[in-house]
Write a structure and sequence with these properties.
The chain is an alpha+beta fold. The protein is built from 24 helices and 12 strands. It folds into 3 domains: about 1-285 and about 295-315, no CATH class; about 350-425, Alpha-Beta Plaits (2-Layer Sandwich); about 465-525, Alpha-Beta Plaits (2-Layer Sandwich). Helices cover about 40% and strands about 10% of the residues. Strand 9 and strand 10 (about 495-500) form a beta hairpin. Helix 9 packs across helix 10 (about 180-200). Mean pLDDT is about 85; it is low at about 285-300.
């Protein structure tokens, strides 16, 4: 029964997990759609650190379950753990097809390596102090599995949909992770390869979640216990154990490594079952010739390790939170020193805070309807590899969308209501006039102003000069009049000289055409964009719409710390004063 319950829950969790990362129709996520992602331990722990109440509730539930039953999280909720169980099951089926039974070291009780897993956990905590969640993103089992879903399963699902419907409804995003895709695949192949070789090796030696839960599961209230009087030492339980944690010689189960898969319970017919034990002390090992150290020493060292890890984690998190920038970040219309090399999503508040919290799971990347969120390579630096950034060559941040904050499980992107999100300035637009089509080709465009949702871009009519060489008498009047020194005389005396306009310098003031006595200089009235920086939120709609290539006329400078933009207020219309009986 216990094993059947575990399999049912695990299948349900895995189906919901995969479904949450497919999202081919760019639908609005429901409140329960990403529940599985919010139940993951490290995202919930980071969300608790950031003050997310729901994340704190999840952490409390997971800790309570661990104290009651042991490491049930690893087999019931963790997606990477469930994938390892699938691989282990396939290995057993493969062995049966070959007509061989696993023997030797694969069936023995393996001595625990607490020094290894707690060293890795300690290094991880120190790295949080030094570089935020950079190392967490590579070791967290949820993030490893989630990136695989975002980088491989999501494009595969898009290809399958296109094949079934016989048309390209959703363009597969195979290039999403680019050169990082081998690293994404390799990160998940390592634990799966270890699982094929010898079961839950990754969970009990490398995984930081497994190491932390091992400290909490030393003496759960409901634990697997062996009855020496009933056991016949058939070793069925040892063969079924995925964690090599059943010591048949001493009739005990190492609860710090047991992942509560209950395969051993189903395989045993002679007295192995979960039993309630009120005592919080770990069972003392029988004194046999195989016992290498007394239980008291083991318990004492584990207690010291636990207290040391708590102290390290508290100091690391406290110091990391102190790194956040404080004070007045500046004016939304000015850049100052508040600029960075990459644009973090709205709701992340600042780039340092975002890098301290995000685990690069990629859920927001797959949920983004315009695909503007893309994995970063070196834009944030080494600590931001694979974490989402806004790439305006791919898309733009939809003004009426706040999905990324609603799906983020760890609080790296805080959920913002639409009104607040529509005023959050994540970058500041810059208009490069010399690149604009209006300036370069003297033709109407207006693509950027039409797509600006905050009306930070408007148009102004200006007089753009042009010179007719046949009418030019090279009098030099336009050259002397131009305030930008944008006009010069070209040619020679034999072929004649005429004025030439440098359009990268011209500001369309119209003074040259007014000063020209021969009529060679004429003016054309065109509308050119004008930027009001205080109204810009850096959504990238103008940059994405700009047709200039390769360098666009509208570019964005990232905000290191997000600001609140102003809102354009229209002047109220004046009531018409009527002097006639019918004023219209």
């Amino acid at each position: 029964m216990w094993r059947a319950v575990r399999i049912t829950v695990a299948i349900t969790v895995m189906v919901l997990f995969v479904f949450g990362f497919i999202n081919l129709s760019n639908r609005e996520p429901t409140g329960w759609e990403h529940l599985v992602e919010r139940l993951q331990f490290i995202p919930a722990l980071l969300g608790t650190w950031r003050g997310v109440f729901g994340a704190a509730v999840v952490v409390g539930i997971l800790v309570a379950l661990t104290l009651l039953f042991g490491r049930v999280y690893c087999s019931f909720v963790c997606p990477l753990g469930i994938l390892q169980d699938i691989v282990i099951r396939q290995r057993r089926r493969f062995d049966r097809l070959r007509g061989k039974k696993r023997n030797g070291t694969a069936l023995r009780f393996a001595q625990p390596l607490p020094w290894l897993r707690y060293t890795i956990l300690g290094i991880l905590l120190v790295s949080v102090f030094l570089s935020g969640t950079a190392l967490v993103a590579w070791l967290d089992p949820y993030s490893i599995c989630a990136r695989f879903m975002a980088g491989v399963i999501n494009p595969l699902a898009a290809n399958a949909q296109n094949f079934v419907e016989r048309e390209v409804e959703t363009q597969p995003a195979w290039g999403r992770y680019g050169w990082l895709l081998p690293a994404v695949v390799g990160a998940i192949l390592l634990p799966l390869a270890l699982a094929w070789w010898r079961g839950r090796v990754y969970c009990n030696t490398i995984c930081p979640v497994g190491a932390f839960l091992a400290l909490l599961s030393r003496a759960p209230l409901f634990r697997l216990r062996m009855d020496p009087s009933s056991c016949v030492r058939c070793a069925n339980c040892v063969r079924a154990c995925k964690a090599q944690c059943i010591d048949l010689k001493n009739y005990r189960v190492d609860t710090t490594r047991c992942v509560n898969c209950y395969d051993c319970v189903s395989a045993c017919e002679h007295g192995l079952s979960p039993k309630f034990t009120f005592s919080r002390r770990r069972e003392e090992l029988p004194k046999t010739k195989n016992a290498k150290e007394p239980a008291e020493t083991t318990t004492s060292s584990s207690r010291r390790a636990f207290l040391g890890l708590l102290a390290c984690s508290a100091s690391a998190l406290a110091t990391s939170s102190c790194r956040e920038e404080e004070g007045n970040p500046g004016n939304p219309g000015e850049l100052g020193e508040n600029q960075d090399s990459a644009i973090s999503p709205p709701g992340s508040k600042s780039v340092p805070r975002f890098l301290d919290t995000c685990t690069a799971c990629g859920l927001c990347i797959t949920a983004c309807p315009t695909r503007v969120l893309q994995p970063a390579s070196w834009q944030y630096g080494l600590r931001g590899v694979m974490k989402p950034q806004l790439d305006f060559t791919v898309g733009f941040c939809n003004f009426d969308c706040n999905i990324c904050g609603r799906v983020c499980p760890e609080g790296a992107i805080m959920p913002l209501d639409l009104a607040e999100k529509q005023r959050t300035q994540i970058a500041l637009a810059e208009f490069h006039r010399e690149r604009c089509i209006v300036q370069q080709h003297y033709t109407e465009c207006g693509a950027c102003t039409e797509h600006c949702p905050t009306k930070a871009l408007d148009t102004r009519e200006e007089q753009f000069p042009s010179c007719n060489p046949e009418l030019c008498i090279a009098c030099n009047a336009c050259v002397e009049t131009c305030p930008q020194k944008a006009i010069s005389l070209v040619g020679d005396e034999s072929q004649g000289m005429h004025a030439q306009i440098d359009r990268t310098k011209c500001i369309a003031c119209g003074k040259c055409s007014q000063a020209c006595p021969s009529g060679a200089m004429t003016s054309q009235r065109l509308l050119i964009p004008v930027l009001t920086p205080e109204l810009c939120i850096g959504c990238g709609a103008c940059t994405y719409a700009c047709p200039v290539r390769p360098k666009r006329a509208m570019q964005l400078t990232p905000r290191r710390q997000h600001l609140t933009a102003e809102v354009k207020r229209e002047a109220p219309a004046e009531n018409p004063v009527s002097t006639d009986e019918f004023p219209f």
